[in-house]
Amino acid sequence: MVDVADKLAYFQAITGLEDPDLCTEILQAHNWDLELAISSFTFNHTDNHNNHPFSSTSTATDTTTTPVDPSNTTTNRSGSSAIAPAAPPPPPGLAWKIITLPISVISGSLGIISGAVGFGLWAAGGILSYSLGFIGLGSNSSRGGDSSAQLVTVSPASREAMEFAAQFERDYGRSGSSSRPNFVGEGFMDALTRSRNSFKLLFVYLHSPDHPDTPSFCEGTLCSEVFSAFVNENFVAWGGSIRGSEGFKMSNSLKASRFPFCAVVMPATNQRIALLQQVEGPKSPEEMLVILQRVLEESAPVLVAARLEAEERTTNMRLREEQDAAYRAALEADQAREQQLREEQERLEREAAEAERKRKEEEEAQERAAREAAEKEAALVRMRQEKAISLGAEPEKGPNVTQVLVRFPTGERKERRFHSTAAIQSLYDYVDSLGCLDVENYSLVSNFPRVVYGTDKLSLSLKEAGLHPQASLFVELN
């Protein structure tokens, strides 16, 4: 993440302001949001750039090297026909600071409020679209619900870079060919950070859609197989259209006067952006390769030194971490031995206490189980007695008396007479009163025909159930 010093340096490099106090005030007014501060600054100065020197009839110039920031050293690596860029504007005075600072604060506040409202509406719209798609009413319902709304926040600079890369692919991408620079879908600052982390230079292309030389340069040079392969291998490529906000800002910062415009930049040691080379006007792939090869060779020592320095930092950091780890390991070993002794003592005490607790719990459980078993047995005895009493005396044989034979799973048989008007429930009460079963869930079943006298037939009389004048039933455990 870019820190405060980096943001201040980048803001000065992009806007061309030299006064660090003023830049700090502007960034603070925008909560140190670099993109919002630059956008607000550019918006307040749009009138000064309406007559930007984009000449569609200018001829190709020799390559020049110009620093992005006025504090960088200006170096001309080309011949005698190099075109010097326009002098930077004088630093703003105190009156300008006093006038523009409230405007910047108000603009930044409005930008934050409008951004929050816009994000809320966008999120609500995404949720509504997802909900409609989920119930089959959305525009994507015909796709079988494979795609769903994804609430992903993309910065305006990244969105602009991705849109430019997609438009470039549509306009100049050849069918089945990948011969083109791989423009990163990130803002300029993120692309610069990427190049620094990968120890490469940043190749910048500013696209002027209305310039007559743009199509031939893009198709013949940028999409050349040899040139694009060289750029993709040795550089991080970033492109932007001057019609876009960031592309326009970079054209001002790099002082682009003719198109097509290419540049090679890198982060400077003083946390500023160093412009190593700029190419204005149409060039052939061979000319561009010569220029980029020369810049690459001249910058190789710096890149190699940066890579070696980073590797040395990594090695030193790893060595310190290993030393710290060894020291911590030794300290932890001593502490572990002491801790082990304490834990062993505590373990023995816990085991003794646990054994005592388990012994008491087992005794209590045995007592509780014995008490519950006795209570259950007593309840069963009472239940059998109550059901035996409810049956009453066994009736004598007669025309209204039913003879019932009950066979148990053990092979035991019991026989009893019941009044033909007695309910099926009386048979279950009779079986329960005998105490021949250890289970409570069973059914009385007749064989021929097979009839299960379950809960739905308990209220039927023996005669209604077809068991009169005699019946043979067996107990089926459920």
Name the features.
single chain, 478 residues, alpha+beta, Ubiquitin-like (UB roll), five-stranded mixed β-sheet, four-stranded mixed β-sheet, 11 helices, elongated, Ubiquitin-like_domsf, ubl conjugation pathway, endoplasmic reticulum, ubiquitin binding
What do you see in this structure?
- Helices cover 52% and strands 12% of the residues.
- By secondary structure, the protein is α+β, with helices and mostly antiparallel strands.
- The strands form two sheets. Strands 6-5-9-7-8 form a five-stranded mixed beta sheet, covered by helices on one side.
- A hairpin with a 4-residue loop joins strand 7 (442-446) and strand 8 (451-453).
- The longest helix has 107 residues, at 285-391.
- It is elongated.
- Residues 46-92, 94-99 and 136-150 have low confidence and may be disordered.
- This is UBX domain-containing protein.
- One of its GO terms (molecular function) is ubiquitin binding.
- Residues 397-475 form the UBX domain.
- It is found in: Endoplasmic reticulum.
In a nutshell, what does this entry contain?
The chain is of the alpha+beta class and 478 residues long. Helices cover 52% and strands 12% of the residues.
